[in-house]
């Protein structure tokens, strides 16, 4: 049986349990359809049942888990139709986030995005797909945080979590090199202070991913 991530004792126990389970879902250690048994997870994590129960409720609230009749909470599945709808929303929201970031981010944001781009380009050159995925998410996270609109941030955080869950069983990519090029165009628009161009490039980037998704077959689901 795969091990769950060790708990960090500096965190509140419920937060630590939640984060361990969340990462296990994203890594595929707890694949879609897995029953989230409170007694079983408590035993594996060597904690009492109460923080596990609270963490599972939070996962359900985040739509990373769902309640099924006679089974209780299980890790959620994101099917291709769900993912396509998420990308329709994401295309618009990433454009809004980029526009707001130009208006509110300042020069320090461009410098931080340049740093991420350099690391991203190096990861792609080395064929490090895991680091590519992390840097891609970090790039978009920095932009929405810089925009400062809590509703945009919350919506895109939720969408990103759903996309990460979908990536356990589905390949969603238009090519790492293309992603870097798209990100570079977004940064250059921000560097010049062009909010219209930043929004347009951000939307084009997500539209490209949406198109790639519609032409890819889902991977076989892992056994629960």
How many separate domains?
A: 2
| Rg from Cα | 19 Å
Main sheet: strands, sense, barrel: 2 strands, antiparallel
Shape: elongated
- By CATH reckoning, the class of the largest domain would read Mainly Alpha
Strand order of the largest sheet: 1-2
Coarse structural class: mainly alpha
Q: How large is the count of helical segments?
A: 9
Tell me the β content: under 5%
DSSP summary, beta strand count: 2
Low-pLDDT runs of 5+ residues are 217-224
Q: Please trace the helix and strand order, writing H or E for each element.
A: HHHEEHHHHHH
CATH topology of the largest domain: Four Helix Bundle (Hemerythrin (Met), subunit A)
The CATH architecture assignment of the largest domain turns out to be Up-down Bundle
Please give the alpha-carbon distance between the first and last residues: 12 Å
CATH superfamily grouping of the largest domain: GntR ligand-binding domain-like
- What is the average per-residue confidence, as pLDDT, rounded to a whole number? 87
Descriptors:
224 residues, mainly alpha, Arc Repressor Mutant, subunit A, Four Helix Bundle (Hemerythrin (Met), subunit A), 2 domains, two-stranded antiparallel sheet, 9 helices, 2 strands
Please tell me about this protein's structure.
This protein is mainly alpha-helical. It folds into two domains: 13-75, Orthogonal Bundle (Arc Repressor Mutant, subunit A), CATH 1.10.10.10; 80-214, Four Helix Bundle (Hemerythrin (Met), subunit A), CATH 1.20.120.530. Helices cover 68% and strands 4% of the residues. The protein is built from nine helices and two strands. It has a two-stranded antiparallel sheet with strand order 1-2. Helix 4 (80-104) runs antiparallel to helix 9 (195-214). The longest helix is centred in the middle third of the chain and has 25 residues, at 80-104.
């Amino acid at each position: 049986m795969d091990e769950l991530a060790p708990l960090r004792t500096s965190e509140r126990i419920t937060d630590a349990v939640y984060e361990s389970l969340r990462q296990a879902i994203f890594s595929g250690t707890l694949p879609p359809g897995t029953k989230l048994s409170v007694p079983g997870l408590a035993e594996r994590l060597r904690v009492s049942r109460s923080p596990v129960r609270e963490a599972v409720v939070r996962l359900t609230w985040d739509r990373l888990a769902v309640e099924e009749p006679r089974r209780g909470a299980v890790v959620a599945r994101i099917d291709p139709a769900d993912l396509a709808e998420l990308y329709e929303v994401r295309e618009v929201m990433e454009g809004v986030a980029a526009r707001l970031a130009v208006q509110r981010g300042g020069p320090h944001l461009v410098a931080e995005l340049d740093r991420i781009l350099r690391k991203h380009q190096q990861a792609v050159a080395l064929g490090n797909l895991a680091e590519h995925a992390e840097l891609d998410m970090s790039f978009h996270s920095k932009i929405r945080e810089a925009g400062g609109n809590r509703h945009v941030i919350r919506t895109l955080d939720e969408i990103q979590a759903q996309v990460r869950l979908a990536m356990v069983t589905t390949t969603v990519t238009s090519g790492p090199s293309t992603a870097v090029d798209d990100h570079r165009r977004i940064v250059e628009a921000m560097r010049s202070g062009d909010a219209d161009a930043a929004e347009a490039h951000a939307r084009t980037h997500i539209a490209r991913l949406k198109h790639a998704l519609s032409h890819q077959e889902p991977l076989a689901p892992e056994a629960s």
